[in-house]
């Protein structure tokens, strides 16, 4: 059942009246407890001058990280369609698969660069087309020839990757990074250098390479939780430490192997990171990275005005449907924002409060995403307030006492079998007809009396005749 939208109530903020150096009020300003302003909510974050929660950029990697998803196969037409949809949503950057990966990858990269999508943006911080390459001169030469606006360079720095992947030591990494960065910079395009497997790398090695590339003028350095091993505290500590070492922007990339990708992304912004990598539905290598929709859910709670001003949130569902169809997966029922039950309320006490003020049980307003909340009233858990709202929507008139009586009968029936909206609407209409005409027409006729009887017989058989409450049929 669709419920009319109401605006979420914004939490009131209060200014402290403390003006003494020891944190106490001057005597003349003292007010009795009942007259004092409310205390600041403990759930409202304390302002931090390094935090970028209200000033971040998204590097959307569905066409790079997402192409590493097991089910993904994007032909050129599909890549262009997804790129246009990301542009329409308003992401800051689109990252593409390395043109060195294959001949078709190179052609696709060139085709997307020629679309001119960035010309549509009305913001000063124009997003750009990026490509993701190995820290290797051959890859860099191919990349800059495609027409991209920026190159994201990566190399593994952990002992695992140095020993079992590329086999290079830190001296080689330093030299090759500087060579590639200086080459890309000479082409007057953006350059980012990222370590791979940052959270399993030696901290001294990390800070040393980041300091070196920052000194020669990279636009960003990147931290990557390549195996999803980090938790928010580790993320905060590393980003905060790095923020004190480099002057450039900080990009972060979080895999979701242990379920922390969204929390880690948010924590990184709190610690001073500036850019977050995402993919639509979180698709990527293994179980993917920070999902775009999940990050939007987290960030709109942190700064609703900023997020709404940057991104066309109402486009999220269509964007996710496009990608889900392309990789042949269903959108999860509990998906952030767009899951089919994301804004569905069922329990009676929840429904009553939601009907009075949606902020009682919602921290995100579905209207911000072009969606609608629903009150699930066709169940044994329903309350009379939900049924009363449905009676009003059906343009019927019943007193509160009559609505409560009708609700009791609906709950009795819902104890016998599952009900749907049409069932409950039929019961309500028949109940209303009986009240207005004084008749005693059985309510079950309109939803299949034989089906109900069969359910009762079956349940009696299962419980040897002791498991069904005969009172469930008294409304008939």
Automatic annotation (TrEMBL):
<comment type="pathway">
    <text>Amino-acid biosynthesis; L-lysine biosynthesis via AAA pathway; L-alpha-aminoadipate from 2-oxoglutarate: step 1/5.</text>
</comment>
<feature type="compositionally biased region" description="Polar residues">
    <location>
        <begin position="1"/>
        <end position="24"/>
    </location>
</feature>
<feature type="domain" description="Pyruvate carboxyltransferase">
    <location>
        <begin position="56"/>
        <end position="317"/>
    </location>
</feature>
<dbReference type="Pfam" id="PF00682">
    <property type="entry name" value="HMGL-like"/>
</dbReference>
<dbReference type="Pfam" id="PF22617">
    <property type="entry name" value="HCS_D2"/>
</dbReference>
<dbReference type="InterPro" id="IPR000891">
    <property type="entry name" value="PYR_CT"/>
</dbReference>
<feature type="compositionally biased region" description="Basic and acidic residues">
    <location>
        <begin position="25"/>
        <end position="38"/>
    </location>
</feature>
<dbReference type="InterPro" id="IPR002034">
    <property type="entry name" value="AIPM/Hcit_synth_CS"/>
</dbReference>
<keyword id="KW-0457">Lysine biosynthesis</keyword>
<dbReference type="GO" id="GO:0046872">
    <property type="term" value="F:metal ion binding"/>
</dbReference>
<keyword id="KW-0460">Magnesium</keyword>
<protein>
    <recommendedName>
        <fullName>homocitrate synthase</fullName>
        <ecNumber>2.3.3.14</ecNumber>
    </recommendedName>
</protein>
<comment type="similarity">
    <text>Belongs to the alpha-IPM synthase/homocitrate synthase family. Homocitrate synthase LYS20/LYS21 subfamily.</text>
</comment>
<keyword id="KW-0479">Metal-binding</keyword>
<dbReference type="InterPro" id="IPR013785">
    <property type="entry name" value="Aldolase_TIM"/>
</dbReference>
<feature type="region of interest" description="Disordered">
    <location>
        <begin position="1"/>
        <end position="38"/>
    </location>
</feature>
<dbReference type="GO" id="GO:0019878">
    <property type="term" value="P:lysine biosynthetic process via aminoadipic acid"/>
</dbReference>
<dbReference type="InterPro" id="IPR050073">
    <property type="entry name" value="2-IPM_HCS-like"/>
</dbReference>
<keyword id="KW-0028">Amino-acid biosynthesis</keyword>
<keyword id="KW-0464">Manganese</keyword>
<dbReference type="GO" id="GO:0004410">
    <property type="term" value="F:homocitrate synthase activity"/>
</dbReference>
<dbReference type="InterPro" id="IPR054691">
    <property type="entry name" value="LeuA/HCS_post-cat"/>
</dbReference>
<dbReference type="GO" id="GO:0005739">
    <property type="term" value="C:mitochondrion"/>
</dbReference>
<dbReference type="InterPro" id="IPR048253">
    <property type="entry name" value="DRE_TIM_HCS_fun_bact"/>
</dbReference>
<dbReference type="InterPro" id="IPR011872">
    <property type="entry name" value="Homocitrate_synth"/>
</dbReference>
<keyword id="KW-0808">Transferase</keyword>
């Amino acid at each position: 059942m669709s419920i009319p939208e109401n605006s979420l109530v914004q939490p009131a903020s209060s200014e402290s009246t403390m003006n003494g150096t020891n944190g106490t009020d001057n005597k003349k300003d003292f007010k009795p407890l009942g007259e004092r302003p409310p205390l600041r909510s403990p759930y409202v974050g304390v302002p931090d001058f390094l935090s970028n929660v209200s000033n971040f950029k998204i590097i959307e990697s569905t066409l790079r990280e997402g192409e590493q998803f097991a089910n993904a196969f994007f032909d050129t037409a599909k890549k262009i369609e997804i790129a246009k949809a990301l542009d329409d949503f308003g992401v800051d950057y689109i990252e593409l698969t390395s043109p060195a990966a294959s001949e078709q990858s190179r052609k696709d990269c060139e085709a997307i660069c020629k679309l001119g999508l960035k010309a549509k943006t009305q913001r000063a911080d124009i997003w750009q087309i990026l490509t993701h390459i190995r820290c290797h001169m051959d890859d860099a030469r191919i990349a800059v020839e495609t027409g991209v606006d920026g190159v994201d360079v990566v190399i593994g720095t952990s002992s695992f990757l140095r020993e079992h992947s590329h086999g290079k030591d830190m001296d080689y990494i330093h030299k090759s990074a500087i060579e590639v960065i200086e080459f890309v910079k000479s082409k007057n395009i953006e350059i980012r250098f990222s370590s791979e497997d940052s959270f399993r790398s030696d901290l001294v090695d990390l800070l040393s390479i980041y300091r070196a590339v920052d000194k020669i003028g990279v636009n960003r350095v990147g931290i990557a939780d390549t195996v999803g091993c980090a938790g928010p505290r580790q993320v905060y500590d590393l980003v905060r430490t790095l923020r004190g070492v480099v002057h450039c922007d900080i990009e972060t990339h979080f895999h979701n192997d242990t379920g922390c990708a969204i929390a880690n992304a948010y924590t990184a912004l709190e610690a001073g990171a500036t850019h977050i990598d995402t993919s639509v539905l979180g698709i990527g290598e293994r179980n993917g990275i920070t999902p775009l929709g999940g990050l939007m859910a987290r960030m709109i709670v942190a700064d609703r005005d900023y997020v709404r001003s940057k991104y066309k949130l109402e486009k999220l569902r269509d964007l996710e449907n496009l990608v889900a169809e392309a990789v042949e997966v269903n959108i999860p029922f509990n998906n952030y924002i767009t899951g089919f039950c994301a804004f569905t309320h069922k329990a009676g006490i929840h429904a009553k409060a939601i009907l009075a003020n949606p902020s009682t049980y919602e921290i995100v307003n579905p209207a911000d995403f072009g969606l609608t909340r629903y009150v699930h009233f066709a169940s044994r858990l329903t309350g009379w307030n939900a049924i009363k709202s449905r009676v009003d929507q059906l343009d019927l008139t019943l007193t509160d006492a009559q609505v409560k009586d009708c609700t009791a009968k609906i709950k009795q029936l819902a104890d016998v079998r599952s009900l749907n909206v049409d069932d409950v609407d039929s019961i309500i209409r028949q109940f209303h007809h009986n009240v207005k005409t004084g008749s005693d027409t059985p309510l079950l006729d309109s939803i299949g009396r034989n089906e109900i009887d069969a359910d009762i017989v079956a349940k009696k058989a299962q419980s040897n005749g002791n498991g069904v409450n005969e009172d469930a049929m008294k409304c008939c």
